[in-house]
Amino acid sequence: MSPMRMFFGLGIMVAIAYIVFAVGIFFVQPNLVYYPEYKRDITGTPDDVGIAYETVELATDDGETLHSWFVPAPDATATVLFFHGNAGNLSHRMGYLSMFYRLGYNTFIIDYRGYGQSSGVPSESGTYRDAQAAWQYVTVKKGIAPSSIVLFGESLGGAVAAWLATRKEPGLLVLASAFTSVPAMGAKLYPFLPVRLLSRFDYDTLEYLQSVTCPVFVAHSPQDEIVPFTQGQALYEAAPGPKQFLELQGGHNNGFIYMQEDWVKALGDFIDGNLPPPA
């Protein structure tokens, strides 16, 4: 076989392998985006840290049931509607729940469909439906004024919170270690693929921020090994004012706001300074 024919054959094999890999990425995307590990494993409850809470079985408008917790704080000055990241479940966010309680805020945290003890299978449109059901619960069932609600999104939850903020009128939006969009994240992970053509997900936090009208608090770490620091900076630049950027320290999964008292104070000061006083 001539060298030219061998080279041509090798090129064909590489092209086929590339196409197969790209097709594979297209079909396995839900497994790359969602990590509902420990699906039925609730590792603890607020009771374990001495905080009373209510278990809520939240119904969505398409028939799913979301396992949720409402954690009331004495004489609460705000209510945090919390949307967690793409891994684990609500019981892995105990540090956040304790922080909000200490700051004097109620918290309502949900597990998306397919996570924790919630029914269904996660999807982008599904997480948005879940967010709407959560908003309906706190504003209608609990009678909490939208102006005193803080939408808090962690990582993937940042996109969910920002999406909801474009459709409702919350008092404030917090984005912690959030990305600009799934295609942007995919381009970072697979720079050799036409990710924007292959992506089945948007979660376009950056685009949603163009329509947000409430104050925005963005927190991100330069050491974040999953979501680039530059994406956090881009979200801050796109956000309306008033706004604040908090530079965290540590990786994506250990740079939590609640781990440093000065970070907690910065968040609390921003929330208290930008929400109306309680009635």
From TrEMBL:
Keyword check for Secreted: no
Keyword Transmembrane helix set for record: yes
Pfam family, one: Hydrolase_4
Entry keywords, A to Z: Membrane, Transmembrane, Transmembrane helix
Domain Serine aminopeptidase S33: 76-190
Annotated TM spans: 6-28
Protein name: Serine aminopeptidase S33 domain-containing protein
Organism in which the protein naturally occurs: Nitrosospira briensis
